[in-house]
Amino acid sequence: MEDKILEVRNLKKYFNTPKGTLHAVDGVSFSIGAGKTLGVVGESGCGKSTTGRVILRLLEATDGEIIFEGKNIREFDKDQMVKLREEMQIIFQDPFASLNPRMTVSEIIAEPLIIHKKCKNKAELNSRVKQLMETVGLTERLVNTYPHELDGGRRQRIGIARALALNPKFIVCDEPVSALDVSIQAQVLNLMKDLQDELGLTYMFITHDLSVVKHFADEIAVMYLGELVEKAPSKDLFKNPVHPYTKALLSSIPVPSLKYKMNRIKLEGEITSPINPAPGCRFEKRCVYAKDICRKESPVLKEISPGHSYSCHLAKEIKAENEKN
Ligand SMILES: Nc1ncnc2c1ncn2[C@@H]1O[C@H](COP(=O)(O)OP(=O)(O)OP(=O)(O)O)[C@@H](O)[C@H]1O
Ligand code: SF4
Ligand SMILES: [Mg+2]
To answer: Are 136 and 156 a contacting pair, CB within 8 Å?
Structure first.
């Protein structure tokens, strides 16, 4: 069996708001194999970042289990969490906002090494910073520059170097290339892929853009309003999307390899509120396949073929329709 590094079970994160309880993450379960990439996709506000932050315990979960290397890290105390921080890191979308503008490149990369007391002296620290800069393709002459003096691609390389400083095993990458020009996106993605191969990293790669993870992720999880609605190996998801929401997402990007013709599905209709959501399928108001049962019963995620799960009452019919086309 595949060696899982992370497993989340029935993970929930609710926020109390003046209007009621906001179900940002609502019973999400998945696992990620060591050295693999899970792409997490879905539109703005569906709970991708919250899922990532809750897994890293930057936010406390409302319920559920987070099993990292066999241990439920929700039970970890402060000391155990300090140690765990070395293993689990995050790369943010906007390197400019996440990097301290008053610190130089070398200071930013050195900071986690200093906090976690990883180097015995200044010389060792400088040498490790230099090594990390080389790893992410930043030339040494940039050590004393400030983030605002660099372009987006270089800034994101600083964010990656900083995330790598403590030799983590698992990195939540929260829209790491969304703020970059397309040409630079490819360079940063290639760098991340090379680093994964070299260092055996496991990624949870969050993006609203399915085309970014198509070749990058081993598996893809699609989220809609706090729930996981479909999960499959990347190839399967692109070849045979079953959940109507996944189909709509895929139909909006050009995918020449699709074995059947897919007409553009426009996402219309009211978006269900994540505050005190009613029973029934949360996609129902926008779904072209919706039937009575969808308004009454919430579909549950089921594994239908190895590694391919989806939560939709009409999954069988939609699958049969895919096969006909
Ligand atoms: N601290 C908070 N307090 C209240 N609600 C929050 C908080 N953080 C997030 N939310 C809400 O939780 C839901 C999920 O937000 P989240 O940021 O996880 O979405 P996302 O999928 O990452 O979106 P985006 O693609 O825009 O980054 C949204 O409805 C958001 O408004
Ligand atoms: S359960 Fe019903 S409303 Fe929800 S996605 Fe499936 S067909 Fe559409
Ligand atoms: Mg987000």
So the answer is: no
Q: Coil, strand or helix: which one is 105?
A: helix
pLDDT at 256: 55
Q: Tell if the pTM clears 0.90, that is, is over it.
A: yes
Give the integer Cα–Cα distance in Å for 236 and 234. 6
DSSP code of 177?
T
Residue to probe by mutation, ligand 1, list 11, 16, 49, 228, most atoms within 8 Å of CB: 49
Compute the distance between CA of residue 322 and CA of residue 105 in angstroms, rounded to an integer: 51
Q: Round to whole Å and give the CA distance between 132 and 44.
A: 33
pLDDT digits (tens, 9 = 90+) for 93-133: 876 777 899 999 999 999 999 999 999 999 999 999 999 99
Q: Which two tokens stand for residue 136?
A: 């992410």
- Tell me which DSSP letter residue 275 carries: B
Which atom of ligand 2 is found nearest the CA of 315?
Answer: 6
DSSP single-letter state for residue 100? -
Q: DSSP assignment, residue 298? A: -
Task: List the one residue out of 166, 78, 80, 163 whose CA is nearest residue 117.
Answer: 166
